[in-house]
């Protein structure tokens, strides 16, 4: 073959080889382009979510300074209640000085005192029932218990009431600065007559109970010297009288000391002072509760937008993960296509060179330059976003709540200071 023919053959082979090369590239580029299109579509979907994330609803935040109205109300309310407490305390001290009373406030539980009296009632009722049933003066144990319970209840209740309404006035004003004033003497004299009347009534009551046991009848009891002599000869009747008398004395003492201050006038002022003191602490507890409720509501307000943000971020991150998966699939497709395409291209070039009488091998660098789909990998993938956390918002709320409580504590300390909040 002449040089002219060889040149002509190479020209023809070059044209055919170029056409085959372009066809080969197109076959491998089409699936890569489809996967690139799918990747860009997923990136676009992720970008659609991203503006919502950037323009997400602002989380509402409450500060301690927003409670100025509460601080103002607390300052005025606590100041008024503290002044009321001071006034009642001074009134109590003045009354104690006037009446010459130095006893402490009554701190005994009324409930415990009532329970003790009930125990006494049932204890006396059981003892009386045993004696009445033993004498066969009632129909049965139930009737004996009912009768004894009524006697015991009458004894304890009457004695406790006498101690509360009479016994506390026996020494009324005896230690006062003007103990001989008509006001004090009149009440002491009235209480003394009432006390003597009560003693006479209770003696009659217990003697009657003794006669009931001695005469073994509850329908008609005879009061006469002979009946009294017969009663004194009945040990069980004497025991009932002594037991009832002991219960009366204990109940009378309980009535004086267990339900209120033994000194009536001071007891009323002690209750007023205690109520005024409780009002101060109740007011402080109320405003503390208001602060707690305020910041609990703030925490609830935070939860909804934070959950909404978290849902948006999760959706966005899922879209980004989908983009990364598509990016990995695209890269695998590109690398596989490059390898297969370079192999076919090397085989194609070798075939045509053999036809043209050239047997040298195709350099690998040349194949890498001729076949490269790297441009399809130049795609920007959206970045992941971190999930919003409640902890940071809650810590800020807790700090603001502590500031509000400290502010309220400062107001309370100012109100209760000796100067009364005044410089």
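^ structure tokens above, recovered residues below v
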């Amino acid at each position: 073959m002449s040089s002219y023919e060889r040149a002509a053959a190479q020209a023809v082979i070059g044209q055919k080889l170029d056409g085959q090369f372009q066809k080969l590239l197109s076959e491998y580029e089409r699936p890569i382009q489809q996967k690139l299109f799918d990747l860009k579509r997923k990136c676009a979907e992720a970008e659609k979510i991203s503006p919502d994330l950037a323009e997400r609803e602002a989380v509402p935040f409450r500060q301690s300074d927003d409670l100025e109205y509460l601080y103002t109300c607390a300052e005025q309310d606590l100041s008024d209640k503290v002044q009321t407490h001071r006034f009642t305390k001074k009134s109590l001290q003045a009354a104690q000085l006037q009446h010459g009373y130095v006893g402490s406030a009554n701190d005994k539980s009324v409930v415990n005192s009532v329970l003790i009296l009930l125990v006494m009632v049932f204890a006396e009722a059981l003892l009386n029932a045993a004696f009445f049933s033993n004498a066969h003066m009632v129909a049965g144990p139930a009737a004996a218990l009912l009768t004894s319970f009524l006697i015991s209840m009458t004894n304890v209740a009457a004695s406790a009431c006498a101690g509360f309404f009479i016994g506390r006035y026996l020494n009324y004003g005896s230690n006062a600065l003007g103990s001989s004033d008509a006001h004090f003497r009149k009440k002491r004299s009235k209480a003394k007559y009432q006390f003597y009347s009560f003693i006479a009534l209770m003696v009659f009551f217990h003697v009657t109970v003794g006669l009931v046991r001695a005469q073994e009848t509850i329908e008609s009891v005879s009061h006469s010297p002979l009946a009294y002599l017969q009663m004194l000869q009945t040990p069980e009747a004497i025991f009932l009288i002594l037991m009832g008398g002991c219960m009366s004395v204990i109940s009378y003492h309980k009535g004086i000391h267990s339900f209120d201050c033994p000194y009536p006038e001071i007891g009323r002022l002690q209750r007023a002072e205690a109520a005024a003191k409780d009002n101060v602490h109740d007011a402080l507890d109320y405003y503390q509760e208001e602060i707690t409720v305020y910041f609990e509501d703030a925490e609830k307000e935070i939860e909804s937008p934070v959950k909404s943000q978290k849902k948006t971020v999760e959706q966005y991150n899922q879209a980004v993960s989908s983009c990364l998966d598509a990016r990995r699939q695209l890269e695998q497709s590109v690398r596989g296509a490059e390898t297969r395409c370079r192999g076919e291209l090397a085989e194609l070039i070798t075939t045509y060179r053999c036809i043209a009488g050239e047997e040298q091998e195709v350099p690998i660098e040349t194949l890498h330059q001729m076949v490269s789909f790297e441009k399809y990998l130049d795609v920007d993938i959206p970045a992941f976003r971190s999930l919003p956390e409640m902890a940071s918002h809650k810590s800020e709320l807790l700090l603001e709540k502590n500031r509000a409580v400290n502010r309220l504590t400062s107001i309370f300390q100012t109100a209760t200071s000796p100067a009364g909040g005044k410089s």
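Residues 159 and 223 are 23 Å apart (CA to CA).
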